[in-house]
Here is the input.
Amino acid sequence: MHVNEENQAPSSDETKIVAAAPSGSEPSRRDFLKRASILTLTIPGAGAMLTACTPEDAATAGEHGMTSGERTGGAAATQLPANAPPLRRYDPVLPPLSSERTLRLHWRANEAPVRISEDRVVNGWTFEGDIPGPVVHCRVGDTVEFTLTNDGIVPHSMDFHAARVDPKVAFRSVAKGESVTFRFTPKYAGAFMYHCGTAPVLMHIGAGMFGAIIVSPRTPLPPAKEFVLVQSEYYFGDPVDGVIQFDFNRMLTTMPDVVCFNGRPGQYIREPLRVKVGDRVRFWVVSAGPNHISSFHVVGEQFETVYLGAPPGNAIHGVQTFSVPAGGGMVFELVCDVPGEFPFVNHSFGHGEKGSVGLLVVEP
Here is the structure.
């Protein structure tokens, strides 16, 4: 998240356009999980391995299936370009709140190669050079002063679902070399999506222009280990010089190649989320789509509380799975009273198998 103190928003709530600034023995559970961290990226059934109640019995499921590359004519896995960016983990930890009650943000929209797995680099349309864009964290009643400068080739815009503004003015598109500035004050707490709203919106979201804005209530929720998960989908076209392009017509089919949390399939298998016994864990879950829900579930646990609307109201308790609609967000809480390794998944298994899976490790 980039804060630009010099870029002051207009004194009123009006938006303005400004010029842009320059097969052997039965595997152990640990062996299974190590193996799954590789298989989940390429082999159908890998997600089901992690969500099975008896993973040891399912560890070889799907070994004879097609790879994702075969399903997509080789577009899913390619020879990486010589200058491929490094594969890095998207930090899921909720950023701390600022002591300031006005949050000033100046972001740039641009095209950028993003490495989403060992063998995949995609041609992303991005906010701040990554997929998803940065997590924004503020409180109910804070003021967000936001500027978007378009360094990209095509027009872009910003639509904050936490804002109450005139979209024709605030969420308007800007061409390359231009900027738009607006401000808003969130009225409700919750997990909200933001995204580029320029037509066709499907293409802009599908190419990576989305993220989460987390609005905390005025009265703090109970202390917890807090994580932000943004589920999204990738629809692959043909690669150009080793970089996978996104396919708008395939987005229209609503049959994704990859479904994942925070832009990279299986990243939280390779590097799990870690907490301690007794910790309260709070997941702020956003489904960016562009087309599908997230049926969020933690294997071996139940959610003590799910907030359907603005927390702390609208709570339901003792929940196994709950669906977050595309373009929506919800808050999930559980208290980790049992040590172990708990997969968190999209329980729509066809999508769980395509990468929307991770591990919550509860240590003694």
Summary: The mean pLDDT is 84.
